[in-house]
Fold:
Amino acid sequence: MSTTHHAGPVGPTRLLAGLSGGGRASLASHIDQWGRIPDATPGAILDALDASGLRGHGGAWFPVGTKWRSIRKAGLRTPVVVANGAEGEPASGKDRLLVMQAPHLVLDGLALAARVTGAGQAYVFVPAEVVPSVRDALAERTARRLDPCPIEVVVAPDRFVAGQETAVVSTIAGRSPGLPTFQGITSIRVKGVGGRPTLVQNVETLAQAALVARFGPTWYRSVGTESAPGTVLTTVSGRWDGPRIVEVPLGTTLARALGIDPAASGLQAVLLGGYGGGWVRPEIALTMPFTEEEARARGTSIGAGVIALVPTGICPLAEVARVARYMEGQGAGQCGPCVNGLDTLANALEHLAWRPQGLRGGAAAIPGLCDLVEGRGACRHPDGVARFVKTGLEVFADHAALHASRGPCAPHAPFLPVPNEAVRGAVR
Amino acid sequence: MSRTRFRLVVDPIACDGAGVCAELLPELISLDPWGFPIIATGDVPPGLIDHARRAVTSCPRLALTLVPVGS
Structure:
């Protein structure tokens, strides 16, 4: 046992405090910084997780202790645990940064999850670009026999829906790579990889769990609020040149966390939760307590922590249309309502953005198209697009009226990142 | 004694929009503009269970199921 006493970092910078800003932290420097993975029993780890109030930062914000307990009770088959770092969202980069620079913190969380659930196999599901970092880290750990079960790396396909739980399971099982499957009413927590109870947990959440296990729930709750403790990693674009990863204490305001004066922000909207999230007026987004509950009360979600600050002077309807078309193309192409509905929806939005006169029924017809796709896919992809579009049309209602009366805005450079975009502004 | 309650669940990946279910159970199933079923939420009323079973067994893609709801 190490004789060095490690205290948790003081203040609102926790996960990012551990990053050197350069390359991957070696096992030696990781242990030097955070101390060894604690020797606690499964029961003690679960109690600490429950008491900490840690929730899943992959997007669903489900209580972590509750999720891990549900796996432990799932019968005699040894479970499978998965660190999910797929991060298919183009505007998100926090999971890549964490896995690239602090893989051992993520792997510590995965090892704890394996210990608590009694897992016989663990997987790290990450994009190809961060695989070398994970493999090097695993080699260091194997030599020291740090982990309670074998850990295998599986490459996450570059696809928006690849991180959906059922897509993670089917990719690991070697079936449809990156494509969601229909689970009916049976959760993958009961029947996942190989028919085994499966825990799929976001990589940042695992890193947070590794800190809770080390420093305890009281330390975890020393930042944030009573009902929303701790910090969350976010990917912020529109504030500085290029996107930046920011660790935000929950319950604070974005005005404070990002250093923006809400009275003179120069913003026309804030996108919270990414392309499956929702639009919020800047004066609200910047001054509301930054918590999942507050975001949900405003029709969106913190989701996986994407925050896009959209300045005035760009056409928000063009942004909504570009992203909707991208999301249509990112669907798995498996479910009729999503295949047909998202294409129809993207067409309508492209008209609204660039040829508003040609839109039958006007902008008023679009929310009904959202209703037609919501809840009707095997995964949550269409639901996210519906939320993105509906909240956009609410926040940009005045702008849509301008398009209807005066025609579209002058073309400008795109703002929100959309990979491999076809000719912009094209209307089919 | 409580009778088992059922819900209709469609597998949206298997479904190819044949539309047979909406013909056999129009009370609970309508079709969207592309011919894919929209299932009414909630339990299947006891009086419609036989019709629901017929819709389930008639689906050419075996995409429709009656799922018992925890009593």
